[in-house]
Amino acid sequence: MGRMSSKHALRMGREVDSIATDAVSLLMGYSYPGNVRELENLIERGVALARGSELTVAELPAALAEQVVHALPDAQGDLPTLGQREEEYIRYVLEHSDGNRTKAANILGIDRVSLWRKLKKYGLAEGEE
To answer: Taking the model in full, what pTM does it have?
Structure first.
């Protein structure tokens, strides 16, 4: 996968030379109904959006993460709990909605009050009581 990102980085004049492990896992878990061309398009888009020298999950389409659910082990090899995955996914959706909670709630398929409760539960409701 590194060569593919380098190919696009060179063509676009970008300095993206690696793909984060979680982004590789996300890309590998997708079924690619559009074949290899679809994978190339996802990486090209990611390279175009990359802020640094590494393509991360943040540069991949949110729809990709919604279709692929991974239970990646932590550093000790333990699988995350459902709560940990929920917190990670909420953080991910908030990041992709630029912190817009209404938009994030819509993406998550819950109302704003439910999102607020989850944010409070996970200590993410900064400055709110």
So the answer is: 0.45
Decide if pLDDT at 14 tops 80.
no
Number of residues written out for the chain: 129
How crowded is residue 47: how many other Cβ atoms within 10 Å of its Cβ? 23
> Cα(73)–Cα(102) distance, rounded to whole angstroms?
31
CATH 1.10.8.60 fits 1-60, yes or no: yes
| String of DSSP letters for 66-104 | HH-------TTSPPPPHHHHHHHHHHHHHHHTTT-HHHH
Tell me the per-residue pLDDT of 60-77, one tens digit each, with 9 for 90 and over.
887 776 665 555 666 677
Identify the architecture of domain 71-129 in CATH.
Answer: Orthogonal Bundle (1.10)
